[in-house]
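Chapter summary example: a protein plus iron/sulfur cluster.
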Amino acid sequence: MYKCCKILKHGLCFFDNMLASCCFSPVDQIDGQVPPVLYDKYKGQIPSKDDLFERINNHVEIFRKGGCPKECKDCYHIEEKDWDEDNYIDYITITHFSICNADCIYCSNNNEKYERTNNTYKIIPVLKNFKDQGIIKKGCELHIGGGEFTIYHECDELLDLFAINNYARVFVPTNAIKYSDKLFQAMDKATTYIIVSLDCGCKRTYHKIKRVDAFNKVIDSLKKYASTEKSREAIRLKYIIIPTYNDNITEFKKFLKIAKKLGIRNLIIDIDARYSRVTNYRIDDYFINLAQEMNEIALKQNFITEFYSFYFQNTNDKQTKKESFLSKLKKKIYFKYFDNNIKKLYKNHKYGAKRIEY
Ligand code: SF4
Ligand code: SF4
């Protein structure tokens, strides 16, 4: 028995310039903290199985000896248990592309020095090779990150390789501006789930947050994605509370109305990760109470709610997740609502990132 992390032992995360164990960073990524790196300057090379697991086990060894890799310090994924020592991968994250057809105000890819790209290495040959060699276990989890998956050039191939055939449980965040029939098939026939951050209940607020005129397109796609009972259950509609943009009950009620009309039951209530970062995870009472009120209204209308943010998520148990978000953070409140730093952050945020037309 020793302290370690299942993602460190069995996870891979593909970035555009490195292959790492995970995409979690317990320390604020604004400070340049990176997760445990396996291959630096990675561009889609296929390593041998031995080399891959030797590198993974070098990190694990630090835990085995009672230490903790500096990249994992304070990470909520660390747990103490009897670990299986087999070499396999069952948790993959793909975040090596950044192309998107929206321009969300909170997007971590919004950076004037950063050009969104679809022009990245091909990941299919790597994953196919790992799958054929038995390195990637059947029943694994595949998490998509990066930009907008439905316009990423290997989207359909990836869904064929892992989703349609039920090889993996696939989790896809999508803005739903572009409808993907392949994605719908995966939701309807296999174990693929989508998360759509709508964050609003009307065109005007949508445009303020997403800064593209695509509200109607999104609603049309959602209608199609929600057209069968199974596919409907595979949708989680998300409301990210963004200070000064949608932090009110009126907007949230409009959001609920849309969800109800579409028959979508699963909701996520969240808070802008940048707000959490600049406040050092001390959330103002206003937002704690707002999230709580939103939750109560949604529950009364028979929605299923979840507080989902990896900054707060330290368990898979939904109830604990809610409690840890609402009670743990409540203890640390010091920040004042509409604090000047927050205002400055939102106003000075640069939006030079290049995006394609949808
Ligand atoms: S402990 Fe955290 S940072 Fe380290 S590998 Fe696990 S998830 Fe990643
Ligand atoms: S949908 Fe929004 S948050 Fe997601 S990648 Fe595109 S711009 Fe960023």
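Key point: The chain has a mean pLDDT of 83.
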